[in-house]
Specification:
Layout lengths: L2 E5 L4 E5 L16 E4 L3 E4 L6 H8 L14 H17 L4 E6 L5 E12 L2 E10 L1 H5 L2 H15 L1
Antiparallel strand pairs: 1-2, 3-4, 4-5, 5-6, 6-7
Helix pairs in contact: 1-2
Amino acid sequence: MKEALIKNRKERLILPSRKDESNQPAQSDSKKIVLETERLVVRQMAPDDFENVRRFLADPEVMYAYEHGFDDDEVRQWIAQNQKRYTQDGFGLWLIIEKKTGESIGDCGITWQEAKGKPVLEIGYHLEKKQVASRLCDRSGQSVFLTDSQN
């Protein structure tokens, strides 16, 4: 079994390779905070975040890499898949909340992807268009990366 070593803020975690390929979502309603900065809270998604997540995933400009904005079923699948990742991998895409407004502005995090037939870790994000202009994407992505890589 291949393993990937990444660093958590508090401890080193050995993360298993993608071994559970079932499509069953994780049964967790946890909204565990993964990272907190002066301006942002980054936490796990939950099913009741549907409206917040749909706001950016339904936008075709935000989801240009997927070539369409997501419909309601795809948003629900997105949340369920990330909940599964939290349980299976210990990480996934996390919801970004702006402290000042209390509103979600996007997601960011780490996911397993396939590249040339091999599993690789990807750092990714999806942000509302107005947040890209404010450069919060750079700050949230850097914070997640730096938190995981410095400890």
